[in-house]
Amino acid sequence: MAIDTETRDRLVAAARTAALAAYAPYSGFRVGAALLFDDGAIVAGSNVENASYGLSLCAETVACAIASQAGRRGGLVAVAVLGGMTGADGAPVIAEAPVTPCGRCRQVVNELAQLGGTDPIVLCVGAREIVEIRLSALLPHAFGPANLA
């Protein structure tokens, strides 16, 4: 399913707003992610760092957890991810290169996508361009719920 320009803009805006809420005192790299569902709902999350670095949570993982908590177990159409260093005003300055989900987040998003049998578009947002790529291209041969059946 393709998304229209207006929906794409809303999704990127939601990711940008989420990045403002990021808790990134250690790296200074604030990330926002937004998930679009087939009913038009958008669920967003931001990264949450921890002094014990390995316990930090990525924005995509937070967004998926929020969606799951709300009972969303499928219908994922698209994901937008953006990030950048904290600027002088405390807001993120969007990274020049498009930001892609890390490997862990690709797997977490894949779980949600496979529950609904979708292959969402991932919008990797940079300062000057947005790269659109299917999740299956970012995570080929993914392990998911069907592998445990």
Topology:
Blueprint lengths: L4 H16 L8 E9 L4 E5 L12 H11 L6 E10 L17 H14 L4 E5 L4 E5 H4 L11
Parallel strand pairs: 3-4
Antiparallel strand pairs: 1-2, 1-3, 4-5
Helix pairs in contact: 2-3
> Got a strand count?
5
Q: Which CATH-level-2 architecture? A: 3-Layer(aba) Sandwich
Strands in their spatial order, largest beta sheet:
2-1-3-4-5
Rounded mean pLDDT score: 95
The whole-angstrom Rg is 14 Å
CATH superfamily (homologous) name: Cytidine Deaminase, domain 2
CATH class: Alpha Beta
What share of the residues does DSSP label as strand, in percent? 15-25%
Helix content: 25-40%
Total tally of structural domains = 1
* Low-pLDDT windows of residues: none
Q: Any idea what the shape is?
A: globular
Work out the helix count: 4
Distance between the termini: 27 Å
CATH topology: Cytidine Deaminase, domain 2
Can you walk me through this structure?
This protein is an alpha+beta fold and 149 residues long. The chain has a single domain, classed as Cytidine Deaminase, domain 2 (3-Layer(aba) Sandwich). Helix content is 30%, strand content 23%. The protein contains four helices and five strands, in the order H-E-E-H-E-H-E-E-H. The chain has a five-stranded mixed β-sheet. A hairpin with a 4-residue loop joins strand 4 and strand 5. Helix 2 runs parallel beside helix 3. The radius of gyration is 14 Å and the shape is globular. The relative contact order is 0.18. The mean pLDDT is 95.
